[in-house]
Design a protein that fits this description.
Elements: H1 2-34, H2 36-43, E1 47-52, E2 55-60, H3 63-72, H4 74-84, E3 90-96, E4 118-119, H5 139-146, H6 168-179, E5 190-194, H7 200-214, E6 220-224, H8 225-237, H9 241-249, E7 253-257, H10 266-281, E8 285-290, H11 302-308, E9 312-316, H12 321-334, H13 342-351, H14 356-373, H15 379-385, H16 387-394, H17 399-410, H18 424-440, H19 445-451, H20 457-473, H21 475-489
Parallel strand pairs: 2-3, 5-8, 5-9, 6-7, 7-8
Antiparallel strand pairs: 1-2, 3-4
Bound molecules: adenosine-5'-diphosphate and magnesium ion.
């Protein structure tokens, strides 16, 4: 007993030493690549904590530093660690917990493997054993299972999800799935779809966290379709396809993110479909996400597509100004002590419209800049710090934006943009919108025509000419054009 303890202790301290040395080398490379200022602010505060299943664990003193490092330096960190040990396939950054003084923690923090000084940024749904030697795990199925679920991001909870019109349905359905003790009636499968960075992954992780906290006996697997594919192919190669399938048998909730990635991959699709059917038949909950609706998933077999749409299909629409502002405010609240004037938040919500990830990135950049140079955040500094991002967002005016803005401006219904009504009160604004679409977007005349209820390109051309003519004589109309252009570009 005494001897084996000593051996284990030795092995552990040896590993620690290796990691500490490795970390020194990684830091030296990072300092050289990132420069002294960046290194001092973001990298030096990190501590190497350990290695677990090919995942290198670092810890950061604050959540903010952790988030910043993950969004900006993750690739560098991983690359340099891989130079130390090729087997490292992931780097996790945890938040070092401050000495707990009161017994009531504000939110439950799971601690695994006996370490309770850190809060993990990612944990596996099925608790892995810290000792990853084969002997310590419960057989092959167990090993596979633990390598199955992808890590969950602790920021992606329902608490941190801001609900607005564009995502209300997706949120409500996700919450319902998370709350139910069984597959949610009418929501199985739950199919979430929407463009990049609109919160699909966030909602899926939130479901997993919620179930873990409220119904820990339920087994949840969350993984990307890519990972599913990869695991499946690996299982086939190592003749463990049966074990692969076994993993899903014991699962209560299976979530597969970004299923558009299995399009065109025939054997993976087939396996996915079988797994999917088997689970539905066994009355298990499924949650699927994609960047488009089931019917738009090209390269996926019809029978799969139709089955994906059997439950509830909830789409997440492009964000609205109100939602973006709400998200910025919520995020800022979490960055304690950082002051950003409301005007700046409004400006960002107005300008960065492409997706929420970019919006968050913009706020992080603004705050980091202010912290680093010790300056207050003002509209002027924001424009300098974000000039590249702002320019990229400026360019993206869509025909839909134009139609909305023009409809509001002339107080007509949005539907009239697509109608064939010819009364002047409607036809003129419609011409205006066509004119602006031609001027402010890169769409062709036929494309614009299609977006106005399938009109011919000659109609669009006529509209453009008509507005140009009128602008010469009609000052009011000229001012309308200027104002709408300004509003749309801002
Ligand atoms: P997707 O999977 O749809 O591409 P993500 O779920 O990864 O998008 O979201 C991108 C980023 O935006 C994440 O950091 C996420 O937390 C954030 N986000 C998206 N929607 C919301 C929301 N409604 N409230 C708070 N954060 C959000
Ligand atoms: Mg995603």
């Amino acid at each position: 007993m005494v001897v084996s303890h000593a051996v284990v202790a030795d092995a552990v301290s040896q590993e620690r030493q290796d990691i500490t040395k490795g970390w020194e080398r990684v830091k030296a490379r990072l300092a050289a690549t990132l420069g002294e200022a960046v290194f001092r602010s973001w990298i030096r505060p990190l501590v190497a904590e350990g290695l677990e299943d090919g995942r290198l664990l670092l810890s950061a003193p604050t959540r903010f530093i952790r988030d910043w490092v993950l969004t900006h330096y993750y690739d560098d960190l991983l690359r340099y660690w891989q130079m130390e040990a090729a087997s490292i396939h992931q780097v996790d950054v945890l938040v070092r917990r401050k000495q707990v003084t009161s017994a009531s923690a504000s939110r439950p923090v799971r601690s695994e493997g006996g370490s309770d000084t850190v809060e993990r940024n990612s944990t596996q749904v099925h608790s892995p054993s810290y000792d990853n030697s084969k002997a310590a795990t419960g057989g092959k199925a167990e090993v596979l299972y633990t390598s199955f679920s992808a890590p969950l991001d602790p920021r992606f909870t329902f608490d941190n999800f801001v609900v607005g019109k564009p995502n209300a349905l997706a949120h409500a359905a996700s919450y319902r799935v998370a709350e139910s003790a069984e597959p949610a009636t009418g929501c199985n499968p739950l199919f979430l779809y929407g463009g990049v960075g609109l919160g699909k992954t966030h909602l899926m992780h939130a479901i997993a966290w919620h179930i873990r906290n409220t119904q820990p006996e339920r087994r949840v697997i969350y993984m990307s379709a890519e990972k599913f594919m990869y695991q499946f192919i690996r299982a086939l190669r190592s003749k463990e396809a049966i074990a692969f399938k076994e993993q899903f048998r014991s699962v209560d909730v299976l979530m597969i993110d970004d299923v558009q990635f299995i399009a065109g991959k025939d054997s993976t699709q087939e396996e996915f479909f079988h797994t999917f059917n088997a689970l539905v038949d066994q009355n298990k909950q499924l949650v699927i996400s994609a960047d488009r609706s089931p019917s738009d998933l090209d390269g996926i077999e019809e029978r799969i597509r139709s089955r994906l749409g059997w439950g509830l299909v909830a789409d997440i629409h492009a964000s609205s100004y109100e939602l973006r502002l709400g998200i910025l405010q919520a995020k800022l609240e979490k960055m304690q002590g950082v002051e950003v004037p409301p005007k700046v938040l409004e400006f960002l919500a107005h300008k960065i419209t492409s997706n929420i990830r970019e919006l968050e990135g913009a706020l992080n950049r603004v705050v980091a800049h202010a912290t680093l140079v010790g300056q207050q955040v003002t509209l002027e500094t924001v424009q300098v710090v974000l000039h590249d991002l702002l320019r990229a967002n400026d360019k993206r005016v869509t025909v839909e934006d134009i139609q909305k803005q023009v409809a509001v401006h002339y107080n007509i219904k949005l539907a009239d943009m697509h109608s064939a009504r010819r009364s002047r009160a409607i036809a003129r604004p419609r011409q205006m919108a066509m004119y602006l679409a031609k001027k402010l977007t890169t769409r062709s005349l036929p494309e614009i025509g299609r977006k106005f209820g399938g009109k011919d390109h000659t109609t669009v051309m006529h509209a453009v000419r008509r507005i140009e003519e009128l602008m010469i004589s009609d000052q009011e109309l000229r001012e309308d054009v200027e104002m709408l252009t300004r509003m749309l570009r801002n």
